[in-house]
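Ligand: flavin mononucleotide. Inputs:
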Amino acid sequence: MKNKNTIINPMSSLHNNLTLPCGVVLKNRLAKAAMSDSLGDGEGNPTQAQIRLYEKWAKGGVGISFVGEVQCDPRFPEKPGNLVLGEHSNLKLLRELTQRSVIDGAHLWAQIGHAGALTPSSISQPVGPSALNLEGLTCLEMSLDEIKQLPEKYAKSALLAKKVGFSGVHIHAGHGFLLSQFLSPLFNHRTDNYGGSIENRCRIILEIIEAVRNAVGDLFPIGIRINSSDQMEGGLSEADALKAIRLLDKTSLDLIDISGGTYFPGVKGSSEGVSKGPYFVHFAEQAKQITQIPLMVTGGFTHSAQAVEVINKGFADVIGLGRSMVIEPRLADRWLNEAEYNPTFPRFESLPPGGLTAWYTMRLTAIGEDWEESFELDLPSAIQQYEERDNQRVIQWRKRFKDL
Ligand SMILES: Cc1cc2nc3c(=O)[nH]c(=O)nc-3n(C[C@H](O)[C@H](O)[C@H](O)COP(=O)(O)O)c2cc1C
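Predicted complex:
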């Protein structure tokens, strides 16, 4: 068995170490999930507010924190506030980010992304596994050559992540971005080796994992985020997601992070929904039966008791926390040491698409700039500020990466 972790005291299960297959140890079972913080400088580099944000989560006791949406190809970001790991990167600032956040035994992993068909068209021409021309989603088909270049791109970014001091990398294959597009029959209509069966749709992911492993060596952690399903008809189904996990089980991954949902136009993301969490525990329980790789499950955790139960029952090894970590950056310490703390979430009367993301992202800005105590933005103001900032940074991003 690759994962020999045992829970010694069921009451303190969140405190327990976790030894990953590569030998690296996580100090506890609480993770700050990948969240695109939109605090990059508009040219793919960290800002002081961003550095402060991750420092606060590390000081707040997390075992591991993921920087969401760190791009391996600046032509295809999710947002113009993303980081980029590539030849344009400011290594000094990246090192400052990692040095201030890999503290007190906390890990900081870079989630390596590529938005593919969901690249903002204001930045560049979106590309995906197949050409699509739908309302709100138009993209060109990637050539076989372009697909074959992906493993090297991810590997180069992963190696740079290691060099600048990230303590691991996380491959983003969820939520409708490029690798999730390959997995999804809605995005992927290819008839070559990268389309059709789930084995073929998963192929590029397996090739990327292998290339990343070759680049970073055996002792460096590699995780992946994958959907339990796309939560829409015709997308990645749970049955196929389980088959994908069987394939991932044969790789050198150290952590599989289960999420779900997609940003396919018109679809509500899982964190925008009204359903009660935690969302993906049942799927994690099934995945546990077919993989020895440690599992993380993210989505809808609001009470520490839910996290304790999932760990105690052995359905997952790590609990991923997104919005609750934005409400309370010291959440890990509080859940580990206080019996009765649970965050209070805002309630919004009506929620336009993307509104929730905008509100939480603006709160991330407040945390990074040290004014979270006085943060009182209402939803329309948050959306306005979020969009205005991105509109300005799109111009900056295009200028910075104009030669690509
Ligand atoms: C502001 C915001 C940004 C997010 N950005 C990312 C991201 O960059 N990568 C990712 O995999 N998931 C991202 N997510 C999804 C979260 O990781 C998480 O899966 C989701 O919020 C559900 O977990 P929660 O109920 O604990 O918030 C984001 C969520 C929020 C609220």
